[in-house]
Amino acid sequence: MSRPRSLHELVPSPAAGFDEPFAMLDACHERIQRTLELLRRLRVHVAARGADDQARQAARDVLRYFDIAAPQHHLDEERHVLPALRASGDPALTGLATRLHDDHGRMEASWAQARSILEAFADGRVAGFDASQDEVLQTFSALYAGHLEAEERIGFPAAAARLDASALGAMSNDMRQRRGAA
User: Fold this and answer.
1) pLDDT surpassing 70 at residue 63
2) What is the SS3 assignment for 11?
3) Which of 5, 24, 78, 139 has the greatest number of C-beta atoms within 10 Å?
4) What average pLDDT does range 77-105 have in this prediction?
5) Above 70 in pLDDT, residue 5?
6) pTM of structure
7) Would residue 38 count as lying in a domain?
8) Is 1 a member of any domain?
9) What CATH number does residue 84 fall under?
């Protein structure tokens, strides 16, 4: 029997290169949104049909993304986007930088809870999500959704407008090096 197909295999991943760091951040957001949609579909599937191989694979896919890629993305923002917002001198943007930084901490704490639920499900230790577990997964998703919206609507455009070619080059190099890309 072939391995169950995941959403990530069915929907092509957005392509972006390190030479355009804000395009890379946007592509990461698209992947986050796709992974959150996979989590939503998993919750619906499990509620309707319970655990099966495809559901457990979906849980593993969500775990892999938020364990590996999401922390790198948050670090990109902490090192490059938030400092640009703070340096703007605009109280609205400095406030946004504080909120986005605080969001990262809340999302990390929420992920720790969601991770333990998904890991138990993926490993077959539980066959579904009770109401409190489902609420943890929903809270995690909602935190991310609000965070992404603020970054895309205000944070990324404002930060990009404040970074010159040299700063964008340094951002690109940092993103590339931390990921071990050539």
Assistant:
1) yes
2) coil
3) 24
4) 98
5) no
6) 0.88
7) yes
8) no
9) 1.20.120.520
